Amino acid sequence: MAKIAFIDLEIAFIDLEIDGKGRILDIGGVKNGLSFHSARIPEFAGFVSDCGCLCGHNIIGHDIKYLKPFLRKEYVLVDTLYLSPLLFPQKPYHKLLKDDKILTEELNNPLNDSLKAQSLYDDEVMAFKALDKDFQQLYYDLLNEDIHFSGFFKSIEYVPSRKPFFFRKSTADIFRELFKGKICEHSNVESFVRDHKVECAYAAALISTDDRNSITPAWILHNYPSVENVIRGLRAVNCGDARCRYCSQKLNAEYSLKKWFGYDRFRTFGGEPLQENAAKAAIKGESLLAIFPTGGGKSLTFQLPALMAGETVRGLTVVISPLQSLMKDQVENLEKKGISEAVYINGLLSPIERRNALERVESGEASLLYIAPEQLRSKTIEKVLMSRTLVRIVIDEAHCFSAWGQDFRIEYMFIGEFIRHLQECKGLDTPIPVSCFTATAKPKVISDICDYFRDRLGITLKRFTTDVARTNLRYTVLFRASDEDKYQTLRNLLDGTKCPAIVYVTRTKAAEKIAERLGKDGFDAKAFHGQMEINTKVKAQDDFMSGKVRIIVATSAFGMGVDKNDVGLVVHYEISDSLENYIQEAGRAGRDVNSQAECYVLYNDDDLNKHFILLNQTKLTLSEINQVWSAIKKLTAKHDCIHISALEIARKAGWEEIRDVETKVKSAIAALETAGYLRRGMNSPRIFATSIVPRNMDEASEWIERCPDFTEDDKLDARRIIKSLISERSRSRAGTAEAESRVDYLSDMLGIETRKVISIVERMRVAGILAKDDDMTAYLRLGQLRKFKYYIQLEKFLVETVIGECTKFSLKEINEKAIASGIARSSVKDIRTILFFWTIRHYIEKRSVTDDYIQIAAKVSASDLEKQIAVRNSIASFIVYRFKDNNKEEDGEVKVGFSLAGLVGDYNDSALFPEKIDVGMAEEALLFLAKTGILNLEGGFMVLYNKLQIERLKDSKCRYKKDDYHNLDDFYKQRIQQIHIIGKYANMMVSDKNRAMEYVHDYFVLDFKAFIKKYFDSKEAKRIDRNISEKKYEELFGSLTGTQSDIINDSESRFIVVPAGPGSGKTYVLVRKLASLILLEDVKSEQLLMLTFSRAAATEFKKRLKALIGNAAEYVEIKTFHSYSFDILGRKGTVEGSEHIVADAVVEIRSGRVERSRITKSILVIDEAQDLGEQEFALVKELIRCNEDMRVIAVGDDDQNIYEFRGSDSGNMKSLITEYGASVYNMLENFRSSQTVISLANSYVKGISGRLKSDPIVGKRIDPGNIRLVRHSTPDYEQAIVNEIVSGNNPGTICILTATNDDALVISALLNKSGRKARLIQSREGFQLSDLAEFRSFIDAVLEYNCACLDDVMWTEATEAVRRRFSDSGCLDLLENCLAAFNDEYPTRKYITDFENFLLESQLEDFTRSKDSEVVVSTIHKAKGCEYDNVYVSLKGLHNVTDKERRMVYVGMTRAKNNLSVHFDNADIFTDEVSRAVMVGDDSVYGSPEEVLMQLSHRDVVLNMFKGNQNLLQSLHSGTRLELDGDYLSAEIDGCRRKVLKFSASFREKLAKMASKGYSPVEACVRFQVFWRYDDPVDGRADPVRREIMIILPDLTFHKS
User: What is the pLDDT of residue 1073?
Assistant: First the structure.
């Protein structure tokens, strides 16, 4: 037998302190009761000269290489580091050790560490002596030739067995005898002890322990990765021999099933042993893919092998799952079975819970770790997994790998990269086995999953699947036409059973609404959906699982991992979005295979459209990824690597106010990373242990105790942080691993929130406990310094304006007030920036209500905020000027290295600032400078919120292409097809249930193409690619003509120009194009912008679009050019007085001062594109420049360009073709006019030069209609037109169109005199709509409610009040038409500012409606876009006939639907053949008209007279008769005749001129009551006071005597 003999070889125990350059700073040593502590190397050499052996912790890997040049002789080396895991392999490990480190609470004290090394060595000797003699021999045989261990055997003069070799046991035999029953009897021990001696020794140490939680230390796995292979070879490979005691128990699936779960046998599914086969494959170490039906016992398939491996090889199985609730449920279910070896880590855990979970994994207590995919990017998770033997990676919901799966997730693409990284870091020769699970998968999905692991990791997945269906579920589909029918059916179904039930719906609101209604009807029901607060959600699920609640009404967020045996009814109130999800959700019923369960679908085709809309809202489009890529390119323009939050990227991309914006940005980044455009890292700064100033833990504790800024809890946490840093320093010195001091690691392992770790560390820096390392970098943008004072001024204004009680604000109003207060540079963008800063600093809570409206709740008082801001601005000023003065400028930036603690110290040391600050104040100042764009913070220790590290890999000229998008594109196409496929299933179930069940079976078994070919004919196969149901498609697009369809179907052209002839259905097609973009293409509603030239057109488009697609239309931005420009400028306004507003908007965009979200669009649609002026076209070009992928669709008719006097130029529409290469679609079909009208118009329009359309308009109506062209010999022919109307008998609407306003007035008077009521389309001149008395009265009424948003009751009450007051007013119908139009545009929320803006952007004629008996009289310019059955055109006053006049005449003619009559006196107007053929002459002399109507404006009345008669005017209204009284107009008021108006001098001249022509005024009435504003000088004031009074503007009728 071997003997241990202690010799007189004296041992010195030593330790060194080394600096970063490898220089010896300090030496400690002990020997024979003597000690040494000095940095003098020669003295140390003398101290150990009489010793034969040197011993230390990691002396071979660390100390000796620095000492060897100075030593006088060779020494026997003993390393306690490598011996410790061999001699103390079982928990609790040696008291002086933690992992590979000697525990110490001191820094820079090698003497203390030498003493601990001596104590550890003595204990190791005693532990070795206590070993079985064969075990001693085994260690000697395996380790004696290795330098790390040979010195130990020499130091104790271990004498191995001296028996003759033929009596001596081999090393392999010793190994087998020692571990009989603990390893496989047929394992290749001989090979292991020959080729992996050290690894075998460590494997033996682990196997010798009885504690299953004892594990091989991480540093051993790192330095000797083959240890895992040895242990696996000895204990994880089943030999299959029933006589092998170890394998027949420890690797026996049935034995372990009974041991861990108490089951006698595995569950079968349809008689197939799917669970058993998959579990045994995992036990064998095979990689596999298992398709388990819901309720098929999937979890046990990986839990059982994991628990077995945890016991046999002390291994860890990692389960990656996107379902957080599933993790919690599975861990809790195992705990109920008495199994505590599982933990989960996700974003919902508290810091303490996360720490406990990580500790259990790191210590070996856990064999199963559940994590979410996003956790794979955590350095803490990576480090913890590196410390364990990984036996398997399990991926749940594996269909997420495939674009053909029902839930493709881009973050799953990182899993393979992560596994490969782990394998490389661990130095593994063989891949880590993988298990993939999914409940339902088509052949293509299975193929994609297998290909992924083969291509990424070289793994072949063994497949386990079954096509056996659940037999205890009865499926029924009931067609129900309406929601009410559905609810009544649901209630009946629930009434008919008492078992627990799940009701599935599509939308969160539906879940709450139905649950509430069921509750009112006496049912015990709760809602469940993903948008709920986590506590509410958990309680709802727990109540259902425990039986407190019988019915759960839920979205698809409910059910994953839910295992409730007694669910007997599942009702899909709306059908699922795929057969995969339907089968899973329906499978929540009947988990008890011995009971029958019912599965109902309440179906109609609208269910499918809801899914299509939801898919469109949630999908990540190619355009959106490019928007994020463009933002990142701009952010990395000067620095390829940046640290930035997802929210900042979102704002730069123009995604200010969208749901789940952070998730969406991260998904886009993941897509870009997958395609190789960038690399995403983690911003996790370190605290270097070398920066610890106190010499030991006691001294650090004293310093911490003296810190005035620390609470008692802070002090406790500070001590824990320091202790962890000291411990990590010890590990670094041991050389076995990199010192881990990242903030996230400290946070995770200490259970302290990240922000608190940062705060405490910074305060320790200020207190001098940690050195003030310059660990931060900032770039000071010199070009932005001028904005510093501006932001201070703007913020001060906002404190005074918005801080108070919870209030709703219009950002435009705030901005205009700021500008009015003298902050000329104010913009909505900058206001949002400050409010965003206040929000993240928790000064306010902010919620966006509309694009313009925000709701703010202050969390601090205005005075407290002012004080905070004053201090912060002082610090910010100090920072700016310090950085600027002390650093070198380069490329417009100053790069600065600094520390937060250093800044605080320098500020507090300055005599300029008497008030002392802390780290938090400095942090706020830096954040303010960063948010306002003055500083760019990069890296460093100040992690203010969740930042991402982004490194751009591709050139900034590169664009994310369709090829890069193909995986996501395939996935979304599959989702569309899946919705159609389940729709067909529902219809099949109604007509042929057996055929439907065969259809489902084939869906999961057949190749996708074969399935489609079997069940869909060629037309159907094309339709299932559409993101819309067939019924809805036919409803929207079924009646389109060829050209119209071409326009709708063109999804490729970036630029489209549609020259649309009159009556061609332009609006009809445009609205459907918008619907097509939203429903059939990758366009989100909020990414679509439509610009028009009138509010009426915008309102009409919005109204029609909503009728087609529902509420999705609410998010489409349809505005006038002027309205959109005011939005860009952040101002309210009106067309009048703002001729350059569009040009100003262009300048604002170019300056970069516009919110990115205001101009980030995927689609721009331009209505009436022929009216584009220079300003409007400049805006269009600027939007194109700002959006790389934006598509432009311009529709208009250059032949109808009649607003040249306003600057319109159809040449700009043509430029879209010539400059941008737009595709052109000519809409030449006319659905409006009769054949004769079209024939005349076609002939006439040929005379216009430079036209876009060369082909004639084609009439689609077959009725001929009538036309008359009447050439008069005299210019006064208005009476002729009136006579023709009065004597005619043409049914339908009648309109008279004139070339001039004066002619329209004359004809109106003549019509009224003839007995035909004229409806004159008037314009407002000199006043706003809100100045009209009726409109003002309504505004005053709603303002009395003192709230920003009115409900329907308030709105109705205000309307009724105005109706009562102005019941006899001729303008009341204008107001009511206006309110109806506003209600169409804003059906739900009625904000007062929205109404005010609506009025500002509207024209009076927008709300003029004619009655059937009335004749509409209008100028041609006002009638553009209108149509009438009978049109009479008067071209009086039209003399010079150029293209401009010809276009006006063409517009007038093409308003006619049936009959057209044109009157003129200029023969040059009509020269074409068709016109000549139908022209007739009229030589009658009608003379001057007998009556003339004049409408007086502000210039025609003495305005100052109204100042004194305001009370009188209150008694009047529109339509009140007035009496002529010389130069005055009087009214009968309270029985007295009172003068209410005086004619101005200029109007008296007009009266005289009319008198000279024989006209006398005979009657008058009030046309408008309006408010007029004027400046009133006031004594003692420099500026006049703005005042407002009511005035009246009358109509005056003249009669010719």
Answer: 95
pLDDT above 60: residue 731: no
For the CA atoms of 257, 260, 264, 269, what is the dihedral angle to 10 degrees? -60
Average pLDDT, the chain: 87
Residue 253 has a CB neighbour count (10 Å cut-off) of 19
| pLDDT mean over 1380-1396 | 84
Q: Contact 219/732 with Cβ under 8 angstroms?
A: no
Residue with more model confidence, 1528 or 703: 1528
Average pLDDT of 129-155? 94
Q: Which helix (H) or strand (E) holds 1419?
A: strand 1415-1419
Beta-carbon contacts of 553 under 8 Å, excluding residues fewer than 6 positions away, are 503, 505, 511, 512, 514, 515, 518, 525, 526, 527, 528, 573
pLDDT value of residue 4: 43
The C-alpha atoms of residue 1477 and residue 1454 are separated, in whole angstroms, by 19
As a whole number, mean pLDDT of residues 1431-1454 equals 92
765 exposed, middle or buried (CB, 10 Å; 0-12, 13-18, 19+)? buried
Contact (CB, 8 A) for 78 and 11:
yes
Rg, C-alpha atoms of the chain: 42
Question: What number of residues does the chain have?
Answer: 1601
What are the CA-CA distances from residue 319 to residues 330, 377, 802, 1319 (Å)? Answer: 11, 15, 50, 76
- Please tell me the predicted confidence (pLDDT) of residue 1: 39
Q: Residue 114 is which amino acid?
A: S
Provide the total of helices (H) and of strands (E) in the chain, helices listed first. Answer: 63, 55
Closest CA to 1421 of 1385, 1445, 1399: 1445
Instruction: Locate 200 and state its tokens.
Output: 């075998």
| Integer Cα distance of 360 and 1139 in angstroms | 71
- List pLDDT tens digits, range 651-697: 888 886 666 788 888 889 988 988 999 988 765 555 554 567 777 77
Distance CA 1025, CA 351 (A): 47
Please give the Cα distance from 588 to 569 (Å, whole number). 9
User: What is the 8-class DSSP label of residue 1160?
Assistant: -
Token readout for 1494 is 């004049």
According to the 3-state scheme, what is the secondary structure of 134-179? HHHHHHHHHHCCCHHHHHHHHHCCEECCCCCCCCCCCHHHHHHHHC
H or E element, residue 454: helix 443-457
1033: alpha, beta or left, given left = phi > 0 and alpha = psi -120 to 50? alpha
Residue type, 1251: R
Share of the chain above pLDDT 70, in %: 93
Q: Beta partners for 755?
A: none
508-532 per-position pLDDT tens digit: 899 999 999 999 999 999 999 878 8
Could you give the CA distance from residue 189 to residue 182 in angstroms, rounded to a whole number?
13
Contact between 653 and 1160 under an 8 Å Cβ cutoff? The reply is yes
pTM of the model: 0.78
**Measured CA angle at 362 (ends 361, 363), to 5 deg:** 95
Summarize pLDDT for 1183-1223 with one digit per residue, the tens. Answer: 999 998 899 999 999 999 999 888 899 999 999 999 999 99
Please write down the long-range contacts of 42-48, taking CB distance under 8 Å and 24 or more positions apart: 42/70, 44/70, 45/70, 45/71, 45/72, 47/12, 48/12, 48/14, 48/75
Q: What is the torsional sign of CA 49, 50, 52, 57? A: negative
Residue 485 near residue 462, CB atoms below 8 Å: no
**What are the φ/ψ torsions at residue 1273 (nearest 5 degrees)?**
-85, -15
pLDDT tens, residue by residue, 1473-1509: 888 888 999 999 998 898 999 999 999 999 999 998 8
Phi, psi of 1581 (to 5 degrees): -120, 135
The span from the CA of 1328 to the CA of 1349, in Å, is 22
Asked if 419 contacts 434 with a C-beta cutoff of 8 angstroms, the reply is yes
